[in-house]
Structure formats: C-alpha cells, structure tokens
Amino acid sequence: MLRLALLFFIVAIVAAVFGFGGIASGAASIAQLLFFLFVVLFVIALLFGIVRGRAPRI
After folding, report:
1. 0.70 surpassed by pTM
2. How far is the C-alpha of 55 from the C-alpha of 3, rounded, in Å?
3. 53: alpha, beta or left? (left if phi > 0; alpha if psi -120 to 50)
4. Contact 27, 11 (CB under 8 A)
5. CA 30 to CA 15: how far, in whole Å?
6. How far is Cα 17 from Cα 25, in angstroms, rounded to an integer?
7. Is 28 helix (H, G, I), strand (E, B) or coil?
8. Predicted pLDDT of residue 28
9. Which of 5, 12, 17, 20 is an S-S bond match for 35, by CB 3.0 to 4.6 Å?
10. Cα Rg for the chain, rounded, in angstroms?
11. pLDDT, tens digit, for every residue of 23-41?
C-alpha cells in the first residue's frame, strides 16, 4: 500500500511538471489518502503486537 502511495505521489509530481493541474491534484490527494491509511494500519498493527505481548520472531 505504501508503494501505491509513492506511485501516486510520483504521478502527481510528473503531472505538475507538465502542467496538468487537475491530474496532479487528484493523484496527490490519492497519495495522501493512501499514506495516512498506511500509517493508521501500521499503528493498529503495532498496538495489537504490544497487546498480545508475544516476542517477535527473528
């Protein structure tokens, strides 16, 4: 999911360079949404790992 956020971010930058404002803003908003979704899922997974109290497998 983080790869998708980075992909949309790169698309937004390329579109902004070429002057496609609508495409750039749309891709940037999708990238921002995916990034924050990834952060929320990471925090939830981290909390579940702490609550379960199991040692991580190495």
Report:
1. no
2. 28
3. left
4. yes
5. 14
6. 12
7. helix
8. 78
9. 5
10. 16
11. 777 777 887 888 888 888 8
